[in-house]
Specification:
CATH class of the largest domain: Alpha Beta
CATH superfamily of the largest domain: Acetyl-CoA hydrolase/transferase C-terminal domain
Shape: globular
Oligomer: single chain
CATH architecture of the largest domain: 3-Layer(aba) Sandwich
Number of domains: 3
Largest sheet: 9 strands, mixed
Radius of gyration: 25 Å
Structural class: alpha/beta
């Protein structure tokens, strides 16, 4: 194994070993060796004779501050929030449509929303289930695999990216693949264990130990009332002694937090006060849960630390394929006692996301499984839209969502739970996420199972179309229920005399707010901590209110009125100063923000 400290020297060595024809496999997300990748891209940009083909997913970038309020909020705090993470040169070139002809980049999963309108990436995106991405990659005959690794006691860990890499290394050991393996060592990566996660130095042709940089930090978003309600509903469906998969984001955090409340006994009083027709709350977890998830998220780690996720299979309480999270998440893993950290097994997604391969053992382990995933929209007949919008623009990707839905139908007593807020804001108006039809389909209606909004739970498995439509309209926002009923009746999918039960006729945002308001102490905006400071946490709901209403003249006028008629927020001047507004010369933007602050004060 050759050990280098200069990324450019490592890149030149790769060019020499491949003859300048580089088919580069890079891990999804955090595992990209940024210094090495940038050095390779720069060499290829400078030398057209080098051909560089990159296959990867989830290129991490902090959000573009842009202009206006977003720039005022994100600009001063960008590095503090997301880490001083070096920009990936190929991503910058793609955004400028300036990638030279001798470099290609294909991704099978995109950072959510970040590549909308970027034609080169939209055209190069490959739609594939996470379990199939490995085979798509192998078909391209990769001759270099480069990855960020952790080093300890003379061994290397693939850390948070065993997802596809562990399988590739195993296949190379079996003589099925041949590639140059390069590890870029990062001191802040936790040394994780698990099947295929730990490798000897002989597994790598090169290791690079460059000047360190901060790992990407995925900033947590606040958990609003709708997300907390969804989390509380989902927590009723999780069976003690069962198996759990949850994803990243506010709803994933809400589900994990609700499970902690359930375990402590704090959730049932909140749940019994719910104004919706729901199953009985669950009790504490006497047997505990076993985690099987493609992504190890902060909420699942918190459940592990609290002893909720503790049911072991082969000595492991969690099996996961990758992680991208906050700096605090990485620190907790690094500082965890080694024997405790070893109970978290980093595995390939061919293990977590599929039943085939050791199927009997997986079936025995994955009892009473609940696979919880998010969606953008759901049709009243149960089609799920999660990754692509009407005009074909890819928001993110299929990832492993379909894999887990498929498992839910293949396993005994397993359920797929799709979560989404009942409405979204766009153009200054609310729109229903429960639709008559959806433009694109991630999960087809013949695999409909459980759907949860803030207004309740729709159990759809084995139901007729009429029963499915009625159940989904019952958890839609009441502003849109009559329109959906009318469409269904005109299409002959609901009886002419159909009426919703009265218990489903009070599905309004204020109903959820009023239900949860007495329990705000138990339902914080950031149940698992935040990198935002106190003033930024104050600003977030105000900026959300501003984004909802400022796009229309009427909405902005009302915000300006509220700035004049409502009492000021106690820390309003600090908030305005943080946004770069001088209170002595406050214009329309600052007044609108003041109105939003005064409107959301609690």
């Amino acid at each position: 194994m050759q050990r280098l400290h200069d990324a450019e020297a490592a890149a030149r060595e790769i060019v020499a070993r491949t003859g300048g024809e580089i088919r580069l496999a890079l891990p999804l997300g955090l595992g990209k060796p940024v210094r090495l990748v940038n050095a390779l891209v720069k060499l290829a940009c400078d030398d057209p004779s080098i051909r560089l083909a990159i296959f990867t997913a989830l290129t991490l970038e902090p959000p573009d501050p842009g202009s206006g309020m977003k720039a005022r909020f994100l600009g001063p705090a960008k590095d503090r929030l997301f880490g001083a993470y070096p920009a990936l040169l190929y991503a910058e070139l793609l955004r400028r449509d300036a990638l030279p002809d001798n470099i290609t980049v294909n991704e099978f999963f995109l950072l959510a929303g970040r590549w909308l309108g970027v034609a080169p990436m939209q055209q190069a995106y490959i739609s594939a289930n996470y379990t199939h991405a490995r085979d798509v990659l192998i078909a391209q005959e990769p001759n270099v695999l480069a990855q960020l690794v952790s080093e300890q006691d003379g061994s290397f860990s693939l850390s948070g990216n065993t997802d596809i890499s562990a399988d590739l290394f195993a296949m190379r050991a079996e003589g099925k693949l041949d590639f140059v393996a390069v590890g870029e060592v990062h001191p802040d990566l936790p040394f994780m264990q698990g099947p295929g996660a730990v490798l000897t130095p002989e597994a790598f042709h090169l290791t690079l130990v460059p000047e360190p940089y901060e790992l990407f930090s995925a900033v947590k978003r606040p958990v609003d009332a709708a997300a907390h309600a969804i989390g509380l509903h989902v927590s009723r469906l999780i069976a003690d002694g069962g198996t759990l998969q949850i994803g990243i984001g506010a709803i994933g955090d809400a589900v994990a937090h609700a499970l902690l409340l359930r375990h402590s006994g704090a959730a049932p009083p909140i749940q019994r006060a719910a104004p919706f027709d729901l199953p009985a709350p669950g009790g504490p977890f006497e047997e505990g849960l076993h985690g099987v998830t493609e992504m190890l998220v902060g909420g699942l780690l918190a459940l592990f630390e609290a002893g909720v996720v503790r049911r072991e299979v082969d000595g492991h309480a969690i099996a996961a394929g990758f992680f991208v999270d906050t700096r605090d998440f990485y620190r907790r893993l690094r500082e965890m006692p080694r024997e405790e950290r070893a109970r978290i097994a980093m595995t390939p997604v061919s293990f977590t996301n599929a039943l085939y391969g050791n199927e009997a053992e997986k079936r025995t382990a994955r009892v009473k499984a609940r696979f919880v995933n998010g969606a953008m929209q759901v049709s009243v007949m149960g089609d799920v839209m999660s990754d692509t919008v009407e005009n074909g623009q890819v928001v993110s990707g299929v990832g492993g969502q379909f894999n887990f839905v498929e498992q839910a139908f293949a396993l005994h007593d397993a359920r797929s739970i799709i979560t989404l807020p009942a409405t979204r804001w766009s153009g200054g108006k609310r729109h229903s996420n429960i639709r008559w039809s959806v433009a694109t389909t991630t999960v087809p209606r013949h695999m409909r199972d459980v759907v949860v909004t803030e207004y309740g739970i729709a159990d759809l498995r084995g139901r007729s179309d009429a029963e499915t439509i009625a159940a989904l309209i019952a958890i839609a926002d009441s502003a849109f229920q009559d329109e959906l009923i009318d469409r269904a009746q005109k299409a002959g999918k609901l009886p002419k005399g159909f009426t919703l039960p009265q218990s489903a006729r009070n599905n309004w945002p204020e109903t959820v707010e009023n239900w949860l308001a007495p329990y705000r102490a138990e339902l914080p905006d950031f149940p698992f901590g935040s990198d935002f400071d106190e003033i930024e946490r104050l600003l977030l709901p105000a900026l959300e209110e501003l984004s909802r209403h400022a796009p229309t003249l009427r909405g902005k006028a009302r915000l300006l009125q509220d700035a004049l008629r409502l009492p000021p927020h106690p820390r309003e001047q600090e908030a305005l100063a943080r946004m770069g507004f001088d209170s002595r010369y406050a214009g329309g933007e600052a007044l609108a923000l003041s109105g939003a602050l005064r409107r959301v004060v609690t």
